[in-house]
Amino acid sequence: MKGPFRDFHHRPAASGTGRGNAQPRAGAERGKPPAANRANTARLRNPPSPESRLPDILRGVEAAVFLDRDNTLIANDDDLGDPEQVRLKDGVPEGLKTLREAGYRLVVVTNQGGVARGNLTEHDVDAVHQRIAMLADEAAAQPNLIDRFYYCPYHPDAVLEEYRRDHPWRKPHPGMLLQAARDMDLDLARCWMIGDQARDIEAGHAAGCRTVLVSNDEPSPDNVRPTTTVKAFAQAVGAIIDSDPPTPLPHADHEWNDPLDEPDSHAADDSRTENRPDAAANREPLRRAIHELTDELRTERLRRAEFTGMRLAAGLCQLFAFLLALLGLLQLGSTDAFLKWMIGAALVQLLTIAILLLDLKG
Q1: What values do phi and psi take at 149, rounded to 5?
Q2: How far apart are CA 223 and CA 192, in angstroms?
Q3: Which is nearest to 41 in space by CA: 183, 170, 176, 137?
Q4: Do both 221 and 140 map to the same domain?
Q5: For residue 214, what is the enclosing H or E element?
Q6: Which conformational region is residue 288 in: left (phi greater than 0), alpha (psi within -120 to 50 degrees), or beta?
Q7: Is 79 in the same domain as 200?
Q8: Entry pTM
């Protein structure tokens, strides 16, 4: 994270591309530029790629627990926009603290279709998330328990047209989890997803995570198979801790599974263990460089595929240049008229080239 504050509010851009735009921790209107006292945040710049499909050398090195919000962390069956109505469920602060002490990063991923229905605003969502974070920190007597909040305000049947779409971040799609893995350097194969709905489990599976369904209802549908099912949040935490909690190590101390190592003897295993930290440290710049190059290529490919106003203007100018050149050819009998038309065509052609160059730089 950057600056003195936690990364808080992450929501996808409407177009799926575009620059990151910080959301404030408190009281600022949506769309204002980032300021020094606001949390560093990110929007969905391009379609996420499943990190769990990458070879080990390119995977993240940290583990996280992804958390559904409503009826997992807080009691809520409606579109909640009033932070004063936030009530943490029993065992949530203690459970979050236990997970954090075990070495897991904590990331909330939540659908907020109430924004699309017009029942609340994105500012309301931010305020509720700030309240959740504050209550959890106070109850657990530990600051900064929750690392990040990702939310999706879109819905296919939205009342508000600007939010009417089935966005890749909307669960059961795994977009929020995949974006968090890229943003936070997570190994999704070591991550968990806790939720109370089938869509939470499906999103976790799609991202390559293990899953915990918190439910007092009937058994989940056949097409939804969580790693384990419990009746309370505390039991979900216990199931994760009892599985194989991560060791909270810095990046350079992560033990990579190196396919080039020779596992033929105990001596070779000992040597591999001693050399792994240095090897991991050496590979870290390479892995990050590959990630950055991949993102840049995707962004450039998407940008070229977009139909922009600049390209429309360039196309119209090109047609106008052809028209002027054609009119000049029709004036071959008059040298002066021919030169005037052709000079005009050349000038418009130069304008076309200039517009295209500006579009490329943008």
Answers
A1: -120, 120
A2: 19
A3: 183
A4: yes
A5: strand 210-214
A6: alpha
A7: yes
A8: 0.58
Separation CA 211–CA 201 (nearest Å): 6
**What SS3 string covers 125-141?**
HHHHHHHHHHHHHHHHC
Letter string b/e over residues 17-27, b meaning 16 or more CB atoms within 10 A of that residue's CB: beeeebbbbee
3-state secondary structure of 248: coil
Q: Do residue 239 and residue 352 come from a single domain? A: no
Are the C-beta atoms of residues 213 and 229 closer than 8 Å to each other? yes
End of a domain among 228, 248, 268?
248
Per-residue DSSP letter, 245: P
DSSP-assigned letters across all residues of 252-276: GG-----TTS--SSHHHHHHHHHHH
Nearest-10 crossing angle of helices 335-361, 309-329: 170
Residue 120: inside a domain:
yes
Please give the single-letter amino acid code of residue 320: F
Q: How confident is the model at residue 121 (pLDDT cuts 50, 70, 90)?
A: very high
Q: Each residue of 238-291: pLDDT tens digit? A: 999 998 766 554 443 333 333 333 333 333 344 333 444 444 455 555 555 655
Instruction: Name the amino acid, one letter, at 354.
Output: A
Q: Does 286 reside within a domain? A: no
**pLDDT grade for 328, boundaries at 50, 70 and 90:** confident
Strand partners, 64: 105
**Number of independent structural domains in the chain:** 2
Q: Which domain holds residue 115?
A: 9-248
Closest C-alpha to 252, from 176, 305, 185: 185
**Alpha-carbon span 182 to 148, nearest angstrom:** 13
The Cα 19–Cα 199 span in angstroms is: 29
Buried b (16+ CB within 10 A) or exposed e, 100-122: bebebbbbbbbbbbbbbbeebeb
- Which residues are marked as active site? 68, 70
Say yes or no: 230 and 96 in one domain.
yes
